[in-house]
Specification:
9 helices; single chain; TIM Barrel; alpha/beta
């Protein structure tokens, strides 16, 4: 099993401890995410020290309009390292609208151009910005991974474009009806699972700090929603991750 999206640099415990616990739970690979330049460097350092960890590096939309958003050139220098498998997370977040939307779109487009030039997939964060996210992604011809999918209104577009759709712990919450319906509708070869650690602990451990080992709880709910065996779905998600991120097997 793989956790396709975790913020190991944001967890309370050392990455080595979390990785070891993940292995004990049957989670053999993790993609750790950078969300700004210092976070990216920390994520890359973890990936270079832990054989089963890969890195995706980006500047998230919450930092648009800040000095951090001017450092895309530094990000360009980092993404060429061997353990980097994607650009992101990047995207748009209008939920709090703490930064100007135009600044978010400019930062997003810069990182899409970066990913296209490098031939890397993009990991997308989108919240309350469905139309603008879809419009920005339309010209991008590379691989797209919709992280922590929570935009059912975007599902039709996502499926038409053959994006990968990754579900986090919030799909396990009993009241997440539309999200659960979306999880049942994604084709077998497009579905992924993640923890978004240390956030969004799945229902079975809700109220705790999340970690990669907990992706097994999300997998169990996804399998139930789709009416399939959890082990078989875990294997399929591994294959999907290999294809999306061009990963090596453990």
């Amino acid at each position: 099993m793989i956790d396709t999206h975790a913020h190991l640099d944001g967890c309370d415990e050392p990455a080595a401890v979390l990785v070891e616990r993940a292995r004990a739970a049957g989670v053999w690979r993790v993609i750790t995410i950078g969300t700004g330049l210092e976070s990216c460097r920390a994520a890359l350092s973890i990936a270079e020290q832990e054989e089963s960890v890969f890195a995706a590096l980006g500047i998230d939309p919450h930092q648009a309009g800040t000095e951090e958003a001017t450092r895309v050139g530094e990000l360009r220098d980092l993404i060429g390292r061997p353990r980097v498998v994607a650009v992101g997370e990047t995207g748009l977040d209008y939920f709090r609208d703490t930064t100007h939307r135009r600044d978010q779109r400019a930062l997003f487009e810069e990182q899409l151009e970066l990913a296209a030039a490098a031939g890397l997939p993009v990991v997308i964060h989108t919240r309350d910005a469905e139309d603008d996210t879809a419009a920005a992604l339309a010209p991008f011809s590379g691989t797209v991974v919709m992280h922590c999918f929570s935009s059912p209104d975007l599902l039709e577009t996502v499926l038409e474009r053959r994006y990968y759709v990754s579900f986090a712990g919030n799909v396990t919450y009993p009241k997440a009806t539309e999200l659960r319906e979306a999880a049942a509708a994604v084709p077998d070869d497009r579905i992924l699972a993640e923890t978004d650690s240390p956030y969004l602990a799945p229902q079975a451990v809700r109220g705790t700090r999340n970690e990669p080992a907990n992706v097994v709880h999300t997998l169990a709910v996804l399998a139930e929603l789709r009416g399939v065996d959890a082990a078989a779905l875990g294997h399929q998600i591994d294959l999907n991750a290999d294809a999306a991120f061009r990963l090596s097997q453990p």
